[in-house]
Amino acid sequence: MSVRPVLGTLGVAAATLLLAAPAVPAAAATAAGETVTVDPTARMAEDGTVTLTGTYRCSGATGAVFVGSTLGQNASSTRYGIGGSRALCDGKEHRWVNSGKPSSTLEPGAAHVEATVMELAPQDGLPLMPRLHATVQQDITLAKS
Fold it and tell me: What range(s) does the DUF6299 domain occupy (predicted)?
């Protein structure tokens, strides 16, 4: 089985968990030194695929860690999961890149992104307990690539 579909599924699952959680202010982190950022411009390909990028820093993980991201536009409460990528929690800053094709057509212009570093920590031998390392909400510009 390919790792890519699994990472995408886990990224969407993490994003779904985050949407149910209370909002966290921009640049907030859950532990000292753990952060996630979103670059101010995202790219949208001709086929509608959106690519979001940024940086993250986390440490102390015992389970699988992912950077999940969601994107929304206008005043709509609809958010689209944009991929999920595996994260390395070694205390160093790393780049992340998530790509995905929303189920609805988006337009170039203002958008809102939420990015989260989420760990699926082991509990009784199963990676089921979500642990939030860092999250951020940020307004960005969605540009055609």
Answer: 33-144
With a cut of 60, say whether residue 98 has pLDDT above it: yes
Which CA distances in Å does 100 have to 8, 43, 52?
A: 9, 11, 9
| CA–CA gap between residue 100 and residue 123 (Å, rounded) | 30
Supply angle C-alpha 111, 64, 123, rounded to 5: 120
Compute φ and ψ for 51, nearest 5 degrees. Answer: -120, 120
Residues 6+ apart with CB under 8 A from 128: 120, 122
User: How does pLDDT run across 37-90, given as a tens digit for each residue?
Assistant: 999 999 999 999 999 999 999 998 988 999 999 999 987 789 999 999 999 999
Quote the CA–CA distance of 73 and 142 in Å, as a whole number.
Answer: 9
pLDDT top residue among 140 and 15: 140
Q: Residue 33 and residue 108: Cα distance in Å, rounded?
A: 33
Q: Which CATH number fits domain 3-144: 2.60.40.2550, 1.10.275.10, 2.40.110.10, 3.30.70.260?
A: 2.60.40.2550
Q: Is 74 strand, coil or helix?
A: coil
